[in-house]
Specification:
With 381 residues, this protein is mostly helical. The chain has one domain. The protein is built from 10 helices and no strands. α4 crosses α9 and α8 packs antiparallel against α9.
């Protein structure tokens, strides 16, 4: 063969044979690589790029809020991975400041709306802003009701935890459990009425509770105040529970050290208990009202009971149910007897009120505890 002439073509590869499958890849290679990708020596292949070497839009971001670890009791729900010593303190200060600003804004808007819709009104006298007792009551209930979303916002913004973690260990309001708690709350109201009748029957006049009211004012005069009370009292009562049994209990409960072998073991034992928050919340709750003497002792006992039930049942539902039922009766009775102008009158009470309320609160505590055990209500996150 002439060496200048080209030789025969090389043996055709397996892919040039029509109708035949490609040969299996070599041992250890899952796929045939006919044209391996080459990269410049100055840049490693993408699969060798270390994670985090350059910013990537697909890199995972730090979560905005962090819930409490599983198995956390209610009063410790603010003790998350984001906890710092200053967060509960700053949150409490902001809650007071934002609450003042928000309620002031509501008053200004309400006054402007009243002047636009009903015209000017006389200057306020005492604690009353508007000439109508029903409007004064409605404005006060709204001012308190706006605190509920504010508490959740502070928990979300400052403590970096779920918005509704103040409500329960499930980070939400357990509506079914709230309705169940209304049953023993009805029982508490009925038992309180019977105890008041019994005390008034046997106690002297100056030690009576005063269950006898005035005369019925008629349906026409009662319907509007009743609708206002029925619609707004649940928001007002829930807001007070979110502040005094929710925020304060969890704010103090967040300060218990987690290390069981730390130096201040007594500090861990004290603050990991729910009782500092329950007591402080009860004192703040009683101080926020205008009661004195035995009336203040009674409302403080009320705060201790619902505070313990909040921790025991893992949420605010039991406290809200009793608070709503109690306030509905406290407002509806004066409205039905023409004494709505005395809705904000607070002061002293005879010792018989405190003594008569003890078995009623004990009934509610035992009934809710039994019901929570029967319904298998979660106490931990």
């Amino acid at each position: 063969m002439d060496p200048q002439q080209p030789g025969p073509p090389p043996h055709p590869g397996p892919y040039s044979q029509p109708g035949q499958p490609p040969p299996p890849p070599p041992h250890g290679s899952p796929y045939p690589q006919q044209h391996p990708q080459q990269y410049p020596p100055h840049y490693p292949p993408p699969y060798q790029q270390p994670y985090g070497a350059f910013p990537s839009p697909y890199a995972p971001r730090e979560p905005r809020t962090v819930p409490a670890p599983a198995g956390t009791p209610y009063h410790r729900l603010a003790r998350t991975a984001k906890h710092a010593w200053w967060r509960p303190l700053v949150g409490t200060i902001l809650l007071v400041l934002f609450g003042f600003v928000l309620t002031s804004l509501v008053v200004v808007v309400w006054v402007i709306a009243h002047r636009v819709l009903a015209g000017p009104f006389p200057a306020p006298s005492g604690t009353d802003i508007f000439p109508s007792d029903t409007e004064n009551l409605a404005s006060t209930l709204v001012l308190l009701g706006v605190l509920t979303p504010l508490v959740g916002l502070i928990a979300w913004m400052v403590q970096r935890r779920p918005f509704w973690s103040v409500a329960s260990v499930l980070n939400r309001i357990r509506w079914r459990w709230l309705l169940w708690c209304c049953l023993p709350a009805f029982g508490y109201i009925a038992l309180s009425f019977l105890a008041g009748v019994l005390v008034d029957a046997v106690a002297p006049a100056d030690e009576s509770i005063g269950t006898s009211g005035g005369d019925w004012i008629g349906f026409g005069a009662f319907v509007v105040p009743a609708l206002v009370i029925l619609f707004l009292v649940p928001f007002q009562s829930a807001a007070e529970e979110f502040v005094f049994r929710g925020w304060l209990i969890q704010a103090l409960g967040a300060y218990g050290p987690d290390d069981p072998n730390g130096k201040a073991r007594w500090l861990r034992a004290v603050f990991r208990s729910p009782w500092p928050g329950i007591v402080v919340g009860g004192v703040a709750f009683a101080s926020a009202h205008g009661y004195i003497g035995w009336a203040m002792a009674d409302i403080f006992l009320f705060a201790l009971v619902v505070g313990w039930l909040t921790v025991r049942t893992g949420g605010l539902e039991a406290a809200i149910a009793l608070h709503v039922m109690n306030n509905l009766i406290a407002f509806l009775l004066p409205a039905a007897t023409g004494r709505l102008d005395q809705w904000n009158v607070q002061g002293s009470a005879p010792w018989t009120l405190f003594v008569a309320d003890i078995p009623c609160l004990a009934f509610y505590l035992l009934a809710v505890t039994w019901l929570a055990r029967r319904q298998e209500i979660r106490r931990l996150s």
